[in-house]
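hey can u check if this looks right to u? its 339 residues, i copy pasted from the old doc so theres a chance i mangled smth
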Amino acid sequence: MNMATRVRSVTLRSILAVALGLVSAGCAAKSTPEAAVKTKVGIVSYITFSPLFIAQEEGFFTEQNLDVELQPFESSTMIMPLLEQGQLDAAGDVPVAGLFNAINQTGNIKIVADRGSLTAGGCDYFALLASTEWMAQNPVPTADNVRGKKISVDINSYQAYVTDKYLATLGLTLADMDVQYIPPPNLIEAVKNGAVDFITTAEPWVTRLADTKKMVVLTGYQKIIPGAQAGFLNLGKRFSKDQPELGERFVTAYLKGVRQYMEGKTDRNLEIVAKYTKLPADLLKRICWPDMRMDGSVDLDTVMDYQNWAIGYGQLDKAAPRDAIWDPRFIDYANKKLG
C-alpha cells in the first residue's frame, strides 16, 4: 500500500469514527429523560381537594413529568396571596371576594377547572342547619320565626352568599339576622350550650353536628342554588401565562384524579382521602362527597352572580370579567389527552 492510499485509509477511518461518535452522542442525549419539573401546589385538608391527593398518590403528576409538592394550609385564604405572588403554581379556592380582587389587580390567577359543584339532587356537602328544638316548634320556616335568630356564618364567605339566597326566599337578608361566626372546632360546644339557632357549614361538620342530635339539616346548598359553582382549581402566572404547557400537563393529571374521585368511596379512594384529611374511615364513609364535573367545566353564570352579591355587600369593587376569570384551554387540552 503506497503512502497516498494509507493517508486516504486513515482519513476515512477518522471520519467514520467522528460520525459514529456524533450518532452515539445524539442517541445518548435522546435517551436521557427530561428532569421532572418541580412545582408547588397549595392544598387544604378538605374532601374537595381529593383529586389533587389522588393525582399525587397514584402517580398521575409523575406521568406528566411533574414533581409536585403539595403544601398544606389551614385555609384557602392563606393560599391565594402566595399564588398571586408566584410562590405557588396552583391551588384550590371557593368563590370569595379576595380571589376576584386579585384577578382584577394583577390577572396572575386563572380559574381552570371545577373543584366542586352543587349538583341538583346531590347530597348535603354544604348545608344550612337549624336547632332541633327550633325545628320542632317551627316545622315551616317563615320570616317571622326566622328573623333575629342567631346564625353562625362568616359574612365574607361563599357560605354567606348562599345563606343570603335562602333568606331571600323568606323575604329576609343577613341584615335581619343576629350574625356571628363560630369557627368549626368550636361548633359542637356552641351547639351543646344552645348558643346558636342556625349554622351554615360544610362537611365533615354537617354530619358531626347532626350526630349531636341537637342540629338538623334545614336545607342543602344544592337545593338553594342547583348546579352552582362551589369550588375551583386555580393556576398562577407560571402555569397560566409563562409556561402554559406545564399548566396543560398539570390539569391533565388533575382531571385524571377527578375521574378516579368520581368513582366514589372505593377502598383506594378512602385510603388516600383519609391520609390527607386525617378523618377516620368510618366518618368518611358517612359524609357527603361533593360532585365534580369530570370534564372540568365551570358554571360561570353563578360565579358572576356571586360577584354581584359581593359588590352589593361592599366586599368587591367591581366584577372581574369572564375572560379574565376563566381559561378553558387547559381542560380542552386535558380532555383531548384523556379522551
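Strands lie at 37-43, 66-72, 90-93, 110-114, 126-131, 150-152, 178-180, 198-202, 215-220, 232-235.
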